[in-house]
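In the previous chapter we treated chains in isolation. Here, by contrast, the input contains two separate entities that must be folded as one system, with a combined length of 716 residues.
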Amino acid sequence: MTIEKAAAIGGGVIGAGWVARLLLNGIDVAIYDPDPEAERKVGEVMKGARRAYRKMVPGGLPREGKLTFAKTIAEAVDGADLVQESVPERLDLKHRVLAEIDRHAPANALVASSTSGIKPTDMQSAMRRPERLVVAHPFNPVYLLPLVEIVAGKDTLPEAVEMAKEAYSSIGMKPVVVRKEIEAFVGDRLLEAAWREALWLIKDGICTVEELDDIMRYSFGLRWAQMGMFQVYRIAGGEAGMRHFMAQFGPCLTWPWTKLMDVPEYNDELVELIATQSDEQANGLSIRELEKIRDDNLVAIMEALGKQNKGKGWGAGALYNAFTGELAKRATKPKASKAAEKAKAEKKAEKPKKKKKD
Amino acid sequence: MTIEKAAAIGGGVIGAGWVARLLLNGIDVAIYDPDPEAERKVGEVMKGARRAYRKMVPGGLPREGKLTFAKTIAEAVDGADLVQESVPERLDLKHRVLAEIDRHAPANALVASSTSGIKPTDMQSAMRRPERLVVAHPFNPVYLLPLVEIVAGKDTLPEAVEMAKEAYSSIGMKPVVVRKEIEAFVGDRLLEAAWREALWLIKDGICTVEELDDIMRYSFGLRWAQMGMFQVYRIAGGEAGMRHFMAQFGPCLTWPWTKLMDVPEYNDELVELIATQSDEQANGLSIRELEKIRDDNLVAIMEALGKQNKGKGWGAGALYNAFTGELAKRATKPKASKAAEKAKAEKKAEKPKKKKKD
């Protein structure tokens, strides 16, 4: 499927990120968010996203989709072929919101939840048409990072998974279908494991948040931007490859190298310790300034990876080439060629309408 | 300190990576490795490293240091001011090798272990001069990734830590001193946590190694090349920043989102499953080919980050600018200017000899 009109339910960091990606791909979006500040917040995210997309495609972007702020979920989902739910991670709230979406969305609309960890099966129980629910879990910033984890629940139809893969591919994303449904899927399992360990390291005073961040971004962070841990370890095995690596490092797993048996107590003291160190690390830069730096860096990394592998691009870089190429192709024509555009439109009117293809 | 002559004890993937970084910085290295294949293997790593450095500094590199293959540890450490130990992770072996290094190295030589996780205190017991031992834990590929974790044991002198910081900085690295000694330090704690979780995901059939790798490198891997997890989450908190993020996501930690209470059994079946999937993922590319792609990608990412932040560079990119600038400055002069070099040499001979400064 291609997306003609989308609805975004929830306009927080993730919801607004979806809105930005959709609009910048030329898709109309109706958003519902009860927060009176929603319009301003989405506007801020749009500003950042526009700035990043202009860097990605300096020759001009497609005409932006139209954004509408709806007063109710029913109004937002009206006529939508994709409804993206991004409300807070509480099952009761998800149930309420998904039931409402389900009741009012067109029968053939795909309903996708942005949840980071709740199983789709646990959410489907609230729906009369559970077969069209998938989890489509993105990563922040949604308008730049290409990954979306697709997870089916027990009542999800295979067709819904296929629709989701097509829909997200058509807006420059990399859908990866998770084979079995588990809480937190794959991405957040890995993130939670690292996060839990990181909290111990800070709590125990082994390092500060800045030192920990530096340890990541001057070492394996650079590796993981281009190859995941298995490919990286395959190479680390040297000429003998993966079997050698596994044999060499396998035993370490049972050494006391992680605090695996415990979760650090999440109290005010720990929150304060981390928040204070994080303030110091920011070194006077506001969230918005950090966001710009982050976005510039991400665009630069993807662009750099796009030039690798004999110009074909590697990993996210290959996808970046295809995506930015597509955006450039669909760019709004400059005003000079208005006459040509009119002629083209007239010519088109003679032919039967073809399905729009992204 | 600057390094005038280094000794490398052990020439595996890590040891050879150290040799490459040192030689390409113009430092003479004597290596000891009992493997009859050591010379060929180090030669292969040098080939890859030279290729990467030529990309980094296309205008010419400093004269390479001289590499000597020593027959004994005593011969290798003779006259060295830095001895880098990179033998396999077995405490008994570390004890034997460090005792031998300690016995023969110059009294003022710094002794550094590349261990990924053994506490320096546990290794110092084998040494008569334990005060000069530090852990200096690098990341593969050592000739490209800048991070080195510096860890002191209970008998390490603060001066040794200072010497280590200076020495590794002088060869383009980012030393981070770990505040308290724990097994696996900081980097490998995080890596082990993610690795353990990854093994579960493969073992349980949630995803393949290729899917897991894609999930990493199309999402948070791109983020972590430029900011670590705390800075990233600070931004994800939106306008409310870190305190908001902690409050929002804190409770998830005790949800069943990781297999935290258990270690997957590391049997032949699991090794075979992963190795087979890894073979498929490689898609016919040899380790050497993958290594080239990895190195090209890493250089491209660091170069791209070097152009960010109004040209000052960001994170590993800022360091990359300084390092490549330094290498370019120290590049061997092209032959055309031989006369000029001779004149300079004559002029130098008139002045008292100054300490070489990297």
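Confidence is low (pLDDT under 50) at residues 348-358 of chain B. The radius of gyration of chain B is 22 Å. Compare these points with the single-chain example from earlier in the chapter.
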